[in-house]
UniProtKB/TrEMBL annotation:
This is Uncharacterized protein. The lineage of its organism: Bacteria, Pseudomonadati, Pseudomonadota, Alphaproteobacteria, Rhodobacterales. The chain crosses the membrane at residues 20-43, 64-86. The keyword Cell wall biogenesis/degradation does not apply. One of its GO terms (biological process) is respiratory electron transport chain. InterPro entries: Cyt_c_oxidase_su3-like_sf, Cyt_c_oxidase_su3_a-hlx. It comes from Pseudogemmobacter humi. It comes from the Bacteria. Keywords: Membrane, Transmembrane, Transmembrane helix.
């Protein structure tokens, strides 16, 4: 996500479009990092024996969050990759 704007040489201080590209890419990467942290928390609780079949809300929340993060990352990628083709 962040490799694309960097490799293409987009300077976020040069114009509004590169700034938007960097902002959307950073926002998507932030959500992916938070998802990894949530997944680690769920693994730690599972390893500590705190997660049982009756008390598995952490796992359900992480699963729901990953669905949101995947949708958001795909949408952001499609917008950033497809919008320049429309111009």
């Amino acid at each position: 996500m962040l490799g694309g704007p960097r490799a293409s040489g987009l300077d976020p201080t040069a114009h509004a479009y590169p700034a938007i590209v960097w902002t959307l890419s950073g926002w998507a990467m932030l959500h992916l990092v938070v998802g990894v942290m949530m997944q680690g928390y769920a693994f730690a609780r599972s390893g500590a024996g705190k997660m049982t079949p009756g008390h598995d809300a952490d796992l359900w929340n992480v699963t729901l969050y990953w669905h949101f993060a995947a949708f958001q990352a795909v949408t952001t990628t499609l917008v950033l990759g497809g919008f320049p083709l429309l111009l």
